[in-house]
Write a structure and sequence with these properties.
The structure is a single chain. This protein has a single domain, classed as 5'-nuclease (Rossmann fold, 3-Layer(aba) Sandwich). 51% of the residues lie in helices and 13% in strands. It has helices at 8-13, 20-36, 43-55, 63-76, 84-97, 101-112, and strands at residues 4-6, 39-42, 78-80, 117-119, 128-129, 132-135. A six-stranded mixed beta sheet has the order 3-2-1-4-6-5, sandwiched between helices. The model has no long low-confidence stretch (mean pLDDT 94).
Length: 148
Amino acid sequence: MAEILLDTNILVYAYDQDDLTRQDAAIQVLKDVELSGAGRLSVQTLAEFASVAMRKLRPPLTPAEALGQVDYLTRSFRVLDLTPQIVLEAVRGVREHQLAYWDAQIWAAARLNQVPTLLSEDFRPGTTLEGVRFVNPFGPEFALAQWL
């Protein structure tokens, strides 16, 4: 079974009532990846989700709701730690691949934990960077089965 790292946008869209198409897609991805056991999250993803969900969603999650969701996610998916090595690798990703820092950090988490697939709409879909393939789960051609 191939591991898949989920980016923050999937978690946020699962609660975004302003974009029902993406919300439905995100909920389905989360369910399918959870059932497969292949899903991975990073500490960064959990932190970004909590921050965005309480500040930018309409209506925002209350702190209690955000806490409950983060707790659920940490029980449902293996969470990759944020380490000094990931920060160093992220800075290298900025320097050598011109990635934005936060994108580089999620890429570094996948790369250093040998997770070959990163589901995100924030990267150019279909590209592979040092063993990590970027896949847009909201694209018309997306089929989760081909990545599991």
